[in-house]
Specification:
It is a single chain. By secondary structure, this protein is of the alpha/beta class. The chain is 39% helix and 14% strand. It has 13 helices and 15 strands. The chain has helices at 2-12, 45-48, 57-68, 81-95, 111-126, 143-147, 152-156, 179-189, 217-230, 300-314, 318-340, 362-372, 397-415, and strands at 24-28, 31-34, 39-42, 103-105, 131-134, 165-168, 200-203, 233-237, 261-264, 277-280, 345-349, 352-356, 375-376, 378-380, 386-389. Strands 4-10-9-8-7-5-6 form a seven-stranded mixed beta sheet. Helix 3 runs antiparallel to helix 10 and helix 11 (318-340) runs parallel beside helix 13 (397-415). It binds 4'-deoxy-4'-aminopyridoxal-5'-phosphate (PMP). Its cofactor is pyridoxal 5'-phosphate.
Length: 416
Amino acid sequence: MSTTIFETLESDVRSYCRHWPAVFESARGCRQYAEDGQVYLDFFSGAGALNYGHNDPDLKRELIAHLSADGIVHSLDTYTSAKRRFLETFERLVLRPRGLDYKVQFPGPTGTNSVEAALKVARLATGRREIVHFTDAFHGMTLGALAATGNATKRAGAGVPLPFTITAPYDGYLDDPDAALTWLGRAWEDSSSGLDVPAAVIVETVQGEGGLRAARAAWLQGLERLCRQHGVLLIVDDVQAGCGRTGTFFSFEEAGIRPDVVCLSKSISGYGLPMALTLFRPELDVWEPGQHNGTFRGHNPAFVTATAALEKYWSDGTFAEEVRQRGRELEEELGRIAALVEGAVRRGRGLLTGVWFPDPGLAGRIAGAAFERHLLVETSGPKDEVLKVMPPLNISRADLLEGTQVLLDAVRAVLG
Ligand code: PMP
């Protein structure tokens, strides 16, 4: 029965890339339940969209209460109580305690909408054309975000070369750690270099899809300095690394930088509902009303769960400290895996981390062996050479260790 359903899905869904032979029906916390009764531990978390796990009971209660009271679901750009509560809570629990002053734009339902809004506003505010992005970056699938994505396969999906972006080496891409920033600075100063001063630089502090490379704090600070010197806007894409993934609410907090624009999505709704924010410095509020709108940028059930998630997890520093502790435990466990394979190293930060393997096929085979042992884990990187380990942030130590033990068994099985 389930094989038939799986075969039907396989033949009817176009461009499907995730081959987990199971049909999932329900989920709670860090576990997913398939139609055939099998239980899977989720170390994938919707690629960062489920930082608080599946169906968090407190968030679910708020959502059900909102729907039961005939609360507004769709509101487009009108004012609603749920939207006001979210904005007040975001200001009180996220922006103010960090001394951040940003205007909040609802750019559309997903991460790529947030990036698109960031690129547009940067070009309008500066009157400049180019956007600098980094090797192996991932910023989304719409044309602007894709043009800033350093992945040949994804870019090829657009058919013809994408305009107006320049690729620079990410931290760690070159042997000389300072070479990339030196090159950018010199080229921007030299009007004959062929590199115009761009509108913005867009960066991920940890490259989620690009292979779990984490930029050093000093490199991010250098990048910020360089941008300030040349009047270039700094956009941090925190779609995947944000909302606590790296152990602080924003992934750039540890480096102490202050981006001009920040992109958030994935876990901001707290419940896996579509929601995105673009945060920008008040001076960058340059759009006339209607210059950036969209039908689904006022999704009130998402505002309700987003507010509940902030209240539950971010009203003090306890949760962030727990995430950092789980991150340290995970790093230790991944170290044991890396030690089994010569050349394997760990990358990433907090609970956005993984293991890089010198043999590009290995990570995929290990993910397959992990699935057979009922653990959902993904690969990332330009050649899918990195095993990407992303459990929900509120996972217990016992569940974390259960999952890493499965991973260790999967690695041993693949190595033979
Ligand atoms: N930016 C980053 C850093 C991402 O990881 C992603 C999604 N993986 C996106 C943007 C695009 O988000 P979405 O898939 O929601 O459009």
